[in-house]
What does this fold into?
Amino acid sequence: MAAASESLRGELAAALDRRFGDADGLAAAAPHHALGGLTALATHRVIRGYSDRPVDPALVRLLCAAALSAPSKSDMQARDLIVVTEAATRERLVELCGKDHWMPSAPVWIVACGNHRRQRQIHEWRGPEFVNDHLDAFFNASVDAAIVLGWFVAAAETAGLGCCPISQIRNHPREVSELLGLPDRVFPVAGLTLGWPANAGVLSPRLPLAATVHHERFDDGSIRELVDGYDRRRHAMMPYRRQRDVARFGEATLYGWSEDKARQYAEPQRADFGAYVRAQGFKLD
Ligand SMILES: Cc1cc2nc3c(=O)[nH]c(=O)nc-3n(C[C@H](O)[C@H](O)[C@H](O)COP(=O)(O)O)c2cc1C
It folds into this structure.
């Protein structure tokens, strides 16, 4: 028993070390009873590629229930999950999400949606007028949906399933809304592919805790050096397989995370998403 939990502590220490590079000794702080849960979170990795093994619909429903147990702003519960298993709908989602080669292997898609429609229905049923028609309504629903998405990932991984969130679902939000029958004031926040893993995935290094955990006050005084260090550490451990847009930006000697993010967002992406959200019935000011 003690040996098993010490081996879990070793696994946690190794994951934190690889993940952050500055988490030395942190695993020692894990209470004995929390080792399993914390190791499960710390060893997260997305899975892109699934086996033929079917996923029990009851298990999917259980994962939905676990995910929807997440906290929700003012208990408004302004989020829903859409479970997609029908082949034709999955195929269309794959098309709309850019047809990444591994996507068709996912036997289940979950779409996490913000749902502000219910709140408006409640006002109609109960009488008091809704007088908060501004950005907050969209923001609350987006945050609620994002939290549920994160909890779904954690729940699925606990069960041994693999998943990958898909923001590409917002590439064609109108078509996705039509496909899934999303009415006004309901919108996709992210898709999620789900299935039994066909590969082990890779534990991906994150920015060091020194860059992303602030104590008492925000402080990014050393951010440039920390990002440079992260670029080098990550490049040594998990180099990018290809550089974006070499024709435009050239071949970088050290193609790190910051170079990749800079090149990624030098391309317009989903510039019309605001227009879609407004058309779904939200005011964004
Ligand atoms: C909201 C959200 C949207 C994402 N969208 C996509 C996507 O469209 N396609 C994809 O392949 N991965 C997507 N990902 C997965 C991220 O690329 C992945 O989480 C990140 O590279 C870190 O890898 P890791 O989660 O394995 O640590 C998304 C993740 C999140 C949280």
Notes: The chain has three domains: 2-42, 57-201, 203-285. The CA atoms of residues 47 and 201 lie 5 Å apart. The first helix runs from residue 2 to 20. The beta strands are 79-84, 108-115, 162-166, 186-195.
